[in-house]
Amino acid sequence: MENSREVYDVVVVGAGIEGSATAYHLAKSGKHVLLVDQSRITRKAYGPQDFYTRMMDEAYRLTEVLQAECGEQLFIKCGTLVFGRYDDPFTVGTEDCLRRFNVPFEKFGSAEQRRRYPGMEFPKDFTFVLDKTGGVLRADKMLQAFQVGTNGSQDLNCICKEE
Hints:
InterPro entries: FAD-dep_OxRdtase, FAD/NAD-bd_sf, MTOX. The chain is 40% helix and 20% strand.
């Protein structure tokens, strides 16, 4: 990923039809727009759902194996931030789940959020939970690795064809 300090008026996540149309019209109206696609945010906890955290342990391990096989960086560990009011069930559940499964995380308030992320504004009563194991999956590279592995391996009994 490129390390850029460029500032955008709007970031549109998802370059499908609707995301692309949104970015197009915003740009036409004079906004400085960043359109992001082919990556997916991933994290170890999703609210209070324990099964998700257990599943993600296996998914992270399998991603490491695929990275080693294809020689490409498929996962960029940069952390993921969950936020909400101090009593928000999703945010509280995420913190509880990370704690239960001993996943490294940080919890902080609005003053620390403003220091770390000065370009983002939130209500002062928000709390923030940073899952230090989270990051970005490079979906385009992962698909390519799966498809090349499927088509190029003698060990797999699977062929990928485009119609």
